[in-house]
Amino acid sequence: METFTHKVPWRRWVAGAAVALLAAVGGFTASAAPSYAQDGRYEAEQPPAACDGTVDTNHSGYSGTGFCNTPNTLGAAVAFTFNAPQAGTATIEIGYANGGSDTRPADVQVNGSTVRSAVGFANTGAWNAWSANTVTVPVNAGANTVRVVATTASGLVNVDYLDVSTGGGPAEGSRRMEDLDRGVVAVRNGSNVLVSWRLLGLDPTGIGFNVYRSTGGGTEVKLNASPLTGGTNYLDRAANLSQSNQYRVAPVVGGVEQQRSPGFTLTANHADEPAVRIPLRNGGPINFTWVGDLDGDGDYDYVVDRQTSPQKIEAYADDGTFLWEVNMGPNSTDQNNIEGGSATIDVGHNDGVTVYDFDGDGRSEVAVRIANGVTFGNGVRFNHANNTEQFIAILDGRTGALRDSAKVPTDYLADGPMYARFAACHLDGEKASLVAFMKNRIGNGGFNLMITAWDFDGTNVDMQWKWLRGNGNHPDGHNSRCIDVDGNGTDEFAEIGFVLNGDGTLKYSLGSQGIIHGDRFHIADMDPSRPGLEGYGVQQDNPSGLREYYYDAATGRMIWKHTLSGTADVGRGMAGDIDPRHPGMEVWSFDGLYNAPTNRLTEPDTSLRPYPQMGLWWDGDITMELFNSGKIEKWDPSNPTPTNSAPRLEQTTGYGGVLGPRSQPTLLADVFGDWREEVVLPNSSYNQLIIFTTDRPSDIRLYTLAHNPGYRNDMTVKGYMQSHHVDYFLGAGMSTPPRPDITY
Ligand code: GCU
Ligand code: CA
């Protein structure tokens, strides 16, 4: 008989804990519910922890009376048990030292299931230098056992303790987002190195950062004198570039330095270029890249298509390690862009693929529209007797294996397979759903349009609702957006000419206001002085002469329209703050640059406007730069120039990047580093992703765009690629964006 007393005091009285205490009064065996407290520190050397090794004391600086040293073998483990007052998440900090030569990865298991794979326990410099890794894990109500298990033959690091903080989530009403790490990146700019990292959506205000550099594998040195509280980037002017340099950052909260981030290494004599190159296998042309944290380590991994026949999808870890391939099979060989095969992906304005953590387990899944003959990442073939019927498939991001599939409704099956555009949306304001926009053609005439929403709970994928356009006057376009247009916390699904509520009912349509099909539209906070979000769209051959329009995104009420004589196919339209002299965003197509809120030309000569392609933030100021035919440009309002003579900051094709259809990149999003955006191009051999990332410092501090609900949804959409937008006003004169209502 043994009773456990734990040095951490009771913090919270809950029914379960009280029962455990009563049991303790009576005494109980080690197998009964023990009476330890739920939150606080659990030493590795002391029950209820279980060390599959020896408790050592030979390296000073540990907490408690020793630390756990396990054999250097794969599977070496230490386990901790604690109580949680309710099901949800717990934040656990694992204290450790690693004086070995490499990062030692370990899985974190909760109650037998791996919830974080291969968490890197980085080198701490010496066995008596202690650090900690913090992860958020799902927990059950009651007792939970966390095991930290070595995934390589190097074994585990020396483990000192587990600090537990339970009851942290998921907060009611908050949307579940990704538990990203700092996303440290470093690129050369001449003899300097720009190091940049993420501010996270829920970081405490006033958080500072220290930046560390280890040159040639040597001891880390802190580069900054006092914690950095401005932009989350640092210009290192003193690096020895003939050696490798690893950079890490450590947050400083309330004057206390926290755990250092995983490192980013700039190799010795690295090319002087604003880019990170991710090696790929050889393969065919790539149209699209998606990012998601496939393995749960806090970094974005990459999924690409291969435009071969049959088509393929490949996944790579963030360092370029090949993970898996899916072969889309014989039904992907018909790549007609209007009536392609039942398993064809990524032609025309279609995709049929996206990447997101749909079940909220901390790892992204890959959603794909499949049909007979698709072979998954684990080699299993999907067999179905009918080649036209299609299925929504959720693949495991780590293996490419099928988790579950569900049949696409057959309403329009008689007209053949349907191509698809996918989006991830938080339709209930908390959990993510997959929304599938699907169309096919009736003979040589009109189109059927069906929009469906799908829930994946970790086991099953199920349809939540189906919306059929029928003969309704609800114009669609070439890409979709998912954003909370009315600010009620739940996302709506928007097309160029209509918006669906999160429950699949029609919210409004612009068809009755004279809007028809067009190629581009945007929804953003274009006018910060007016509540809510605004929309801007362009028109293709509208018989009324309508070229472009601006509307209230919550209601669809028109604010202004530009109508000219004759008709025109206005194939491009852009929105972003590129002229700080006028509050709010500019919008432009081919008829001049307008300040959206005032509906005034900012430059009277309508030929002196940039090309309406895509925007991105790059140079460190608050106005938007542009990505146009591979060039990163900045339109200068004080010296306005036409397309092709805008001041150029970079030419991405000069570094070997190639553009896809419609001069588009494979992805333009905030992939890593600070809030500024990356643009992802393949090289011409298609065996490398070149991720262009800024090399210019900025003193502007904004939380990562990937933690902004509207922007992160946008990152999951393709179609005719357009700029993503945050759901607050980002531009000159902006106020600090509100803390996002998210949990991770
Ligand atoms: C050294 C060190 C141990 C450590 C071991 C390891 O022997 O003294 O504390 O556990 O290396 O590589 O794991
Ligand atoms: Ca970035």
Descriptive notes:
Keywords: Signal. Residues 40-165 form the CBM6 domain. This is CBM35 domain-containing protein. Residues 1-32 form the signal peptide. Pfam families: CBM_6, RGI_lyase, RGL11_C. The structure is a single chain. With 744 residues, this protein is mainly beta. The protein has two helices and 53 strands. The chain has a five-stranded antiparallel β-sheet with strand order 2-5-10-7-8, with no helix packed on it. Strand 36 (498-500) and strand 37 form a beta hairpin. It is globular and about 85 Å long. Mean pLDDT is 92; it is low at 1-37. Alpha-D-glucopyranuronic acid is lined by residues 56, 59, 69, 72, 100, 127, 155, 158.
What keywords describe this structure?
744 residues; five-stranded antiparallel β-sheet; binds alpha-D-glucopyranuronic acid; 2 helices; 3% helix; disordered N terminus; single chain; 53 strands
In short, what is this structure?
With about 750 residues, the chain is mostly beta strands. It has a five-stranded antiparallel sheet, with no helix packed on it. The structure holds alpha-D-glucopyranuronic acid and calcium ion (CA).
Write the layout of secondary structure elements.
Elements: H1 15-26, E1 40-43, E2 50-51, E3 54-56, E4 67-69, E5 77-84, E6 88-97, E7 104-110, E8 113-121, E9 130-139, E10 142-150, E11 158-169, E12 175-176, E13 185-189, E14 192-196, E15 208-215, E16 221-222, E17 233-236, E18 245-253, E19 256-257, E20 264-266, E21 275-279, E22 289-292, E23 301-306, E24 312-316, E25 322-327, E26 353-356, E27 365-370, E28 391-396, E29 402-407, E30 419-425, E31 433-441, E32 447-456, E33 461-468, E34 481-483, E35 492-494, E36 498-500, E37 506-509, E38 521-524, E39 534-538, E40 546-552, E41 558-563, E42 574-576, E43 586-588, E44 593-595, E45 600-601, E46 614-616, E47 625-628, E48 631-633, E49 648-651, E50 667-669, E51 678-682, E52 688-692, H2 709-715, E53 742-743
Parallel strand pairs: 12-53
Antiparallel strand pairs: 1-11, 2-5, 3-4, 5-10, 6-9, 6-11, 7-8, 7-10, 13-14, 14-17, 15-16, 15-18, 18-19, 18-20, 21-52, 22-23, 23-24, 24-25, 26-27, 27-28, 28-29, 30-31, 31-32, 32-33, 34-35, 35-36, 36-37, 38-39, 39-40, 40-41, 42-43, 43-44, 44-45, 46-47, 47-48, 48-49, 50-51, 51-52
The protein binds alpha-D-glucopyranuronic acid and calcium ion.
Alpha-D-glucopyranuronic acid is lined by residues 56, 59, 69, 72, 100, 127, 155, 158.
